[in-house]
Design goal:
The chain is mainly α. It has 10 helices and no strands. The protein is 72% helix and 0% strand. The longest helix has 28 residues. Its main location: membrane.
Length: 190
């Protein structure tokens, strides 16, 4: 009989217990840590990933006023910034990854919600229906890490490794959202 392997959520809890918590004053006073920790949302003691995703909602609401191509460019720029900030923060804290690094959740959620920008205008009613659905699906994909998300989470390291699993989770949700909206509303009015 083989022992049960810990699931993604259990591995995350074990990782969090093994790494000492950095002082909040250090995180909030150092720009690279402030970015990696999602402007402080990653300092939450419980469910920092969920808090980081919640921190993405007001960013989404502001960015949703952009044309879709500008929104996509913003997501790409934030991904590059996140790879650098999370990698540098990990180096400074001498960790591979840290549960409080939630900038990846912010970028991943912005990608998950991208179909809402493509199909709806700034703060239209469809956004308010789709936003909690995108939020819930993103959290499920981020926590469960189905293949290939889990594989990339284990195999890719550094700042890119911190960011990639959440970006992939966001892209999976965006594909689901795109398919659903295309079926319900037709092609996006880009």
């Amino acid at each position: 009989m083989t022992p049960n392997k810990p699931g993604a959520a259990q591995r995350q809890r074990l990782k969090q217990q093994a790494i000492p918590r950095p002082p909040a004053a250090l995180i909030l006073s150092t720009p690279v840590h402030l970015i990696a920790f999602g402007f402080g949302s990653g300092l939450a003691r419980h469910a920092p990933g969920t808090w980081g995703t919640l921190a993405a909602v007001p960013i989404f609401l502001l960015a949703s006023a952009l044309p879709f191509y500008a929104y996509a460019a913003l997501c790409l720029a934030l991904f590059v910034l996140g790879c650098w900030a999370c990698g540098e923060s990990a180096r400074l804290l001498q960790v591979e990854d840290y549960p409080g690094f939630v900038f990846d959740e912010i970028v991943g959620f912005l990608l998950a919600a991208a179909p809402l920008v493509a199909w709806f205008g700034f703060w239209e009613p469809g956004v308010w229906v789709g936003l909690p659905i995108a939020f819930g699906l993103f959290r499920v994909f981020d926590i469960v890490k189905p293949w290939p998300i889990g594989w990339f989470d284990r195999q890719v390291h550094g700042g890119l490794g911190v960011m990639l699993d959440d970006v992939l989770a966001g892209l999976f949700v965006a594909l689901i959202g795109t398919a659903a909206l295309w079926l319900l509303r037709g092609a996006p009015p880009l």
